[in-house]
Specification:
single chain; about 500 residues; outer membrane lipoprotein receptor (LolB), chain A; Immunoglobulin-like; eleven-stranded antiparallel β-sheet; 1 helix; 31 strands
Amino acid sequence: MPRVRIVSRLVLTLSVFLVCGVLPAQQSSKGNSVATHASNTTSPSLKICLRLPDDSAFSGLSSLRVATAEGSGVAGKPTGSEGETIFSGLTPGSYSVEANAPGFVSVKQLVELKLGHGLQTMFLVMRPDTSANTPSAPPFAAANENAAFPVPPGIDEVVPAVSPGVSCDLPVVLHGVGERMTQLVSNLEKFSATEHVTHFSVDKAGVLRSRETRSFEYVVLVSQDTFQGFQLDEYRNGNTNPAQFPAGIATTGLPVMAAIFHPQMQPDFKLSCEGLGQWNGHPAWQVRFEQRPDRLNRIRAYNIGGNYYSVALKGRAWIDAGTYQVLRLETDLVQPVKEMQLTRERLSIEYGEVQFHSHNLQLWLPKSAELYWERHGHRYYRRHDFSNFKIFAVDTDQKYQRPKESYSFTNTSDRDIPGVLVVNPVSSSHLSPVSIAFTVPAGRSVFKTIGAGKDVGIPGELVGSAKYVYKGQVDSVKVDAYLATESTLEVVPDPTP
């Protein structure tokens, strides 16, 4: 069976967490509090910061009402910081403050504004409403060797319950989670983690067999891309060889899955909000997505023997109602992929907050992922666990280097381009030419390494010439050679359909 790489074509799941305001040192967010700032202004002002119990900013859907003792409401203006609103030019006196948000306990406070006290800041803590008792989505069943493994139901077979009577403003939710994706791309260039993989085959009776484990030093690089805006590259133990994985099947691109909600990607999917659910005690908007048939599939593909097969996905995400972080993501096939005999693929990713103290960043990254798939009459279950995260600020001269002794192929068009590379050895070597057929995905780069046991099984010093012929317009694929010795490379486009 040829080696298989399950890939994702774009970057990211993940989110950056921003803090609203700074709580004064003498105050505690365990209770709601007011800080007064002296000023010579005659009219007092009130700034309200909505926070979560962990002192982070509350940025979810909310309504905030400030009213005088007589019940007249006053207008406020967002400051530009998350969860922060300012009410200026108020008349001295008593005011009532009330904050409401779906999935959270309502907060009511009184505040006295006095002449000459200038700006006063009130911190309101929004606590999850645990009385709703909306059940979380069921996770995959526990996996143990020689134990029965219930096949996880399809995305549309079991729809988790949501809170009745709670409306969801989908455009606002998508804007919030889209900002998290954008923030991540602008803040993250490189991170590493320890990855532990547990793999089973599933026999015809639905029993887990042949347990295998792997551990990797996992490195993820985020870089700008002329077509897609950004892309993700992954390295395990310093390379990308799928043979490192059990069954020769590499699962890559897990951090990229939440990129479904990046503003550049949202138009590729049908998106709907099922309502307010919860995940692990967090109120969360349940958002269903499905690849649109009229849009380019830029999220997931299988690479089998150099050929790419696009995989259209549908699924569900749980988006934190207070922060717009993606807490959990599940995907399913829109339909089986007959060309590669892929009949099932069920993926579940759970995200967690990771604090990078060295860079004062809090990112939401995949903590675990589970995958079940059926292909070519075989069934597998695999679990990934990530730990020991580290983040790196990458300077220009520290960027991850391309593989030494390699050819690179960069597709500048908006469609996948197939081609054939033929590499000829020097005439004195008595080695045979090597021919490789592969597809370069739209907007992506592909490397073919040179050397014994690599893509081109000819030692670099014995490469004499190469010819690459591809099905595409002139200059739709940029080709470079990185060889230690002199050689020639001919690139031939074939624009005929």
